[in-house]
Amino acid sequence: MFLLNGQTVLRSYNFGLGNQPLGPKQFEGDGKTPEGLYYIDRFNPRSRYHLSVGISYPNEQDKAYAAQFGRSAGSDIMFHGRGPEGNVFAPKNRDWTAGCLALTDQEIEDVYAMLQPGIPVMIYP
User: Burial of 64 by CB count in 10 Å (0-12 exposed, 13-18 middle, 19+ buried)?
Assistant: First the structure.
């Protein structure tokens, strides 16, 4: 993951994805991480995963796609730390979340401090 200011890379991080990391998220519970353009839309200082920064998934296209199949697109996709639960899973499996993007607790502290609502986030393989 790269945090940019214009074309300048401010920081880069390795991160974990959903527990089914291949392909874009389509439905609630599929264990995949969304791909595409989203925006930072919320912050949770009390996250069970240390800290979390929400993205605007699902957007209208995501909802419409899932609705074609009578399914939910899911929700609550975040950048977050590991917290106690993640510290159990992450050492064994880098991709352990239900669809979020997981960083170490120290890394999410950096990300949390640098971002603000409305910042675009491009997620792609």
Answer: exposed
